[in-house]
Amino acid sequence: MPFWVQGMGKEIDDDVVEPEYLADKYLELIAWIADHNRKIEDRNDHIKMLVLSKELEALHTFKRSFMCLRCPCGAGINMVDVSINGDIYPCEEMNEIAEFKIGNIRTHSIMDVLNNSKVVKELSERNPDNIEDCSVCAWKRHCQSGCANKNYQNFGSFETKSEKCQFYKKYFENLIWYLDSNRDALKYLV
Asked: Which of 12-26, 78-92, 135-149 has the lowest mean pLDDT?
């Protein structure tokens, strides 16, 4: 997604971007990219956004090839991150966060660490159907309750709705309406 506050950025209270405003601006960018690409004949010169193309794939086909758009996500399932000192984390988003360290490649095999990790087990069991605010949401299969790491960093739990919940609701609904009223846009965005 286009804007996340993490780390030292959390200390800044002013200049917070409202989710609805952010969704409007992101949708304007998408429309601009589609218009730009429509004018460019050579597809190699088209502007492409990886996350957008994966979101469109999920909306259009219900396929979830991007692990951040499925639940459970790929953390500890389809990927791990290994720091320079050999520490193993379920995802690059979790690198160097002490509570997410699940082992070290110098002392354990990656498979042993993954098979015995409480954090990986919790991540693999995460499901928007089990999160009170998300279970009844029409968009739960598109945002998947947001990033597990970002939810943990903001709320102290994997089992929460995303801090960008309002953004996702407006963004996905308006993206569908944009695609419906601009029938050829999809081919210029993927």
From this structure: 12-26
Per DSSP bridges, beta strands 103-104 and 81-82 are: unpaired
CA-CA-CA-CA torsion for 106, 108, 113, 118, nearest 10 degrees?
-90
Burial class (CB in 10 A: 0-12, 13-18, 19+), 164: buried
Closest CA to 148 of 73, 61, 51, 82: 73
Q: Tell me, what DSSP letter sits at residue 75?
A: B
What distances in angstroms separate CA 144 from CA 98, 138, 139, 158, one per listed residue?
25, 11, 8, 11
pLDDT in tens, 103-135: 999 999 999 999 999 999 999 999 999 999 999
Residue with tokens 């409480």: 118
Contacts of range 126-135, beta carbons closer than 8 Å, 24 or more positions apart: 126/71, 126/72, 126/73, 126/158, 126/159, 127/71, 127/72, 128/71, 130/159, 131/159, 131/160, 131/161, 133/160, 133/161, 133/165, 134/161
Flag whether the pTM goes above 0.85. no
Q: Which residue, among 38, 37, 68, 34, has the nearest Cα to 149 in the 3D structure?
A: 68
Q: Write out the two tokens for 98.
A: 């002490």
